[in-house]
Write a structure and sequence with these properties.
- The chain has one domain.
- The chain is built from four helices and six strands, in the order βαβαβαβαββ.
- A six-stranded mixed sheet has the order 2-1-3-4-5-6, sandwiched between helices.
- The radius of gyration is 13 Å and the shape is globular.
- It starts with a strand and ends with a strand.
- The model has no long low-confidence stretch (mean pLDDT 95).
């Protein structure tokens, strides 16, 4: 799967995904870096068939109102350390990727994985 990691998440998030065999790009890797607008992120996600990974509720609203991005992974853990986030991602990545085969919006919390239909 191909992922686009938003600015509020650490760049090393890409490393975790790549290590698991996925394609991942962080906004820091884009020409405008972390100044890339939400609209540009949405456009890239559509053009490159990427799942947007974010903590930003603006992307949730865009998904619900306009169906953009095509697929969305919301990280809803609150403020946790990178080590805790990595552990959470690694523990749930198989379920997340399997869920994205049938669903478009998934939310990862500290205690649960929510698949929105």
């Amino acid at each position: 799967m191909k992922f686009l990691i938003d600015a509020q998440l650490p760049r090393r998030f890409c490393s975790w995904l790549v290590a698991a065999g996925h394609d991942a790009t962080h906004t820091l890797d884009l020409p405008q870096r972390n100044c890339t607008t939400d609209r540009e992120i949405l456009d890239i996600a559509e053009q490159e068939d990427r799942i947007v990974v974010t903590k930003d509720d603006d992307f949730v609203q865009s998904f619900l109102l306009a169906g953009r991005p095509p697929k969305l992974l919301l990280i809803a853990t609150g403020n946790i350390g990178n080590a805790q986030l990595e552990k959470l991602i690694r523990a749930n990545l198989t379920m997340i990727t399997q869920a994205f085969e049938a669903y478009r919006f998934i939310e990862l919390g500290s205690e649960m994985l929510v698949i929105h239909e």
